[in-house]
């Protein structure tokens, strides 16, 4: 029978569980209501759930490898882990799930994070800020010169064109790793903190809220009073009844168009602009900070949620596979059924087995390469 993990891990797993449910909602529930406005699920979870997952991946790396890991063996273990997760992602991409599968991108996230495993909190925080702000401009400048695929999730066949695939995974795809590295660096920085302390949790929640609100406010200022919407009206000509504002504020597929630099002022979901990155990093820190405050009886009551969060790879893989093998015309019950099954199975598995099945495989394969922490 598996023992209950420490409170700090329950908080991290609880945040992962919330991210998992949010990502499932984005995949299953309608993005728009009947009147054409963004649905509640889209407003709450779109862009934010994936960002929360990425930040928590960085936290997980910090907790797994410690502050001063031995790079030769720990690095090899991380590269092997990345390869295995990437292989799962390429396999899932072959299913007709309708999901932009993130796992191949995660493999690149981990490779890019490798040089930062021994960095300190201040260095990681500064690097995360620089990547979040600067890399979207770099991407904007070079993206038109890069080859593009058809926008579908990467599959094994794409390995035949490694340059095109790498360009997509780094810059042109749905989760551009060269920009999303900022999430992992932020997570690594957070993972260096004393997560058991209530003061740390409150500071994370407070800093996250301030960062998110500030980013949203700056975007609104740039696009509104400072004329961003007006500038973009010259390159945005909706032919479907939408306004310029609705087009600019809509969720995208990893990047904004390169027709005007004013696109970089938006904070819309999955645009990978500076303000999108900062805002979603802020909401991720806010959710994690609040989750770290959950202890005692409340943690026991929320066992199904943190149990699900303790096996995100297994449940995400099962969710995408299920979407690829089934279909529905009634999304709400379809979503609720998946959530219920995930929570029940995770609770039982966690209690009687421990790690999720795919998490166990990764741990078993990489264990020979995992030296003790220093």
- Radius of gyration, Cα only, in angstroms? 20 Å
Biggest β-sheet: count, sense, barrel?
none
Overall geometry = globular
SS strand fraction: under 5%
Determine the number of helices (DSSP H or I, runs of at least 4 residues).
Answer: 17
| Elements, N to C (H/E) | HHHHHHHHHHHHHHHHH
* Spans where pLDDT lies below 50 across 5 or more residues: none
Helix content: 55-70%
- Helix and strand composition category: mainly alpha
Tell me the distance between the termini. 30 Å
Instruction: Write down the overall mean pLDDT.
Output: 93
* DSSP strand tally: 0
Query: Number of folding domains?
Result: 2
Question: Could you explain the architecture of this structure?
Answer:
With 374 residues, the chain is an all-alpha fold. The protein has two domains: 1-27 and 54-193 and 298-374, no CATH class; 197-294. It has 17 helices and no strands. The longest helix has 26 residues, at 198-223. The radius of gyration is 20 Å and the shape is globular. It starts with 6 loop residues before the first helix and ends in an 8-residue tail after the last helix. The mean pLDDT is 93.
Output the keywords.
374 residues; mainly alpha; 17 helices
Question: How would the blueprint of this fold be written?
Answer:
Layout: H1 7-28, H2 40-45, H3 48-65, H4 71-92, H5 103-113, H6 121-142, H7 162-172, H8 177-191, H9 198-223, H10 228-232, H11 244-248, H12 274-292, H13 296-301, H14 303-309, H15 312-325, H16 331-352, H17 357-366
Helix pairs in contact: 1-3, 1-12, 1-14, 1-15, 1-16, 3-8, 3-12, 4-5, 4-15, 5-8, 6-8, 6-12, 9-12, 14-16
